[in-house]
Amino acid sequence: MKVLFQTRFNLFTRKGGDTVQIVKTREFIERKYPDIRIDINSDPSVDVSGYDLVHIFNLLRPQETSLFVQNAKAQNKKTVLSTIYWRSPEFEKQGQFGLRRMINRLIDYDGMEKIRALYRYYLDGEKHDGTKQLIRRGYTRLQRDILDQVDLLLPNGEGEIELIRNVLKPGKPIRYLVVPNAIDAGLFWCEPLPDRDLVLCVGRFEPRKNQLNLIKAFRGLPYKLVLAGTAHRTQQKYFDAMKKAIGNSNVQIVPEMEHDDLKAWYRRAKVHVLPSWYDTPGLVSLEAAVSGCNIVATTRGTTREYFRDDAFYCEPGSVESIQRAVMQAFQSPGNEQLQRRIAAHYTWEKAAEKTVEGYRQLLG
């Protein structure tokens, strides 16, 4: 079997959770199934005649995803879509930063996305037909058109499918198979350690990850907070606000790091906190859980599907809620039940098996 992976053009220059998902899915499928070969290509007009199917990622960027789907269908190829989907008007109107939040409060969701598309087209180098389609047809309609063309959806949780049905209202019945988010459990596993002495937050520095409210929540707390990550050039004002809010407090920023260095921080942390405006559920939270950290997670997204009652939940818009959840997590014993469950069920091996199960369903 030959499969082509297609996704956003800046997959490796602006890395995110989808970068890890794509690279690791490919690695573990090819490791477990030597008869399957996978290529990664972001060219929307590539010849796909040599592939059995095209696996596309990320419904949140329909301006590119639509081009991949149209190209595959023009060449009569079956298509799989890993949705990586969530929609949060609450975040856009409350959690965004600066001028963008002010504008978002005046217009609807599709209006926000049209403005973003215009910016990308004229100022950020995305002058292609997909961006023009988004501007002309609208964000939601373009996403709905994609759903009506692809053959199989691979969401990370049932919550994604529920949201897709309720918000996008596709015109045909949804065929899907849940493929859970995953981690390299063997790399991050750690036996319980008695000397964990800090709170850790790993992730890109951006309004959706909500580090600014987290910093505010640590004013007056007796714990040390370490923020590990980096800010994209478009988020420099947010990063500056973060540094200003820190002042001389008990908060430290460390640069983004590779897994071997990151696991040392996980092993020092009693708590990992990700108070995002939404997450599905955040790969770093899974890594931290299997490393033995107590988990503070957002109430938004698919976090409860993964962590159930084994995490401490916070409201992203409430500094007091974040502070309370961190205190409860730090004062509680480690949760070995969560650690074992994540290590057993949310691994790249399991994700590879589910993905290939979807391929086989589709190809018969």
From TrEMBL:
InterPro entries documented for this protein: Glyco_trans_1
Glycosyl transferase family domain ranges (all copies): 195-340
Signal peptide (from-to): none
Entry's Gene Ontology molecular function annotations: transferase activity
Keywords noted in UniProt: Transferase
Gene3D superfamilies: Glycogen Phosphorylase B
Domain of life according to the entry: Bacteria
UniProt-listed PANTHER family: GLYCOSYLTRANSFERASE WBBK-RELATED
Name assigned to this protein: Glycosyl transferase
UniProt lineage: Bacteria, Bacillati, Bacillota, Bacilli, Bacillales
